[in-house]
Design goal:
Blueprint lengths: L11 H14 L12 H8 L3 H13 L3 E4 L3 E4 L14 H7 L4 E12 L2 H7 L6 E11 L2 E10 L17 H8 L4 E9 L3 H7 L7 E10 L2 E11 L12
Antiparallel strand pairs: 1-2, 3-4, 4-5, 5-8, 6-7, 7-8
Length: 240
């Protein structure tokens, strides 16, 4: 997914792409709406048809638009990807096992994004982000440390949520329907804070899932999910 680099010049095709993406995000065009034609965009932005075509092609690859030959370009229907992907809510996993879920909030705050964080969200350094660290327990035993950054533009009420009643994953899927998710999974050792919050030794291997999710072309959240290897089994399937 192409993004303007902080402080760098914006390519012509990105001007077209961002105009359409921001319009979709703001609700100017909703699912099923016909978007401006290639000819209209060429005239509006005074760019070549090839430039407009690249912008539309990338938006199509991101799942934001649908192109029908001879008819036009439409805003895509956003279908919530099944939670059986890695975007599965830990509360649901625990409930399926017939066990009790508990969430303990370690920290919850508004922060200023550093350069790396800002780049991940397509924002300027110093922009506001929400940061939470939450420990999830199953029958009183810590099984996941969730370290999350959230885009305030996608979830403005995040800091006021009661995480004993709703998990971050549940809330974010409700307010920012998922259009794309990227993730990595690795076996590694916990850092000092994770080990303390999970009640494990620093040398105990953990399963770490790093995930970034997008909605309508915006980065919604990045999260690091750390699970003690001896207490957690990752399983699931994918359904489109």
């Amino acid at each position: 997914m192409a993004r303007k680099l902080p402080g760098g010049p914006e390519p012509q095709y990105l001007k077209v792409k961002n105009h359409l993406r921001e319009g979709i995000a703001a609700g100017r065009w909703v699912a099923g709406d016909l978007l401006p034609s290639e000819g209209q965009l060429v005239a509006q932005f005074e760019v070549s048809r090839m430039t407009v075509n690249r912008a539309l092609r990338e938006l199509h690859q991101e799942g934001l638009i649908e192109r029908v030959q001879g008819v036009g370009t439409f805003v895509a229907q956003l279908h919530r990807i099944s939670s059986t992907l890695t975007v599965r809510d830990v509360h649901e996993e625990i409930a399926e096992r017939g066990h009790q879920h508990e969430a303990r909030v370690h920290s919850l705050a508004r922060i200023k994004a550093n350069a790396e964080q800002a780049a991940e969200f397509g924002l300027k350094a110093g922009a506001a982000l929400f940061h939470s660290v939450i420990v999830h327990l199953e029958n009183g035993v810590a099984i996941q440390c969730e370290d999350r950054l959230v885009n305030p533009a996608c979830a403005p009420d995040y800091l006021g949520l009661d995480f004993a009643q709703i998990t971050p994953t549940q809330h974010l899927l409700e307010v920012a329907p998922l259009s794309e998710a990227r993730y990595t999974i690795e076996a590694t050792l916990p850092d000092e804070l994770e080990a303390r919050l999970l009640g494990i030794a620093r040398r105990e291997p953990c399963l770490v899932v790093r995930r970034t999710t997008f909605s309508r072309g915006q980065t919604v959240t990045t999260v690091r999910l750390t699970h003690p290897g001896s207490r957690y089994l990752l399983e699931g399937s994918f359904q489109a």
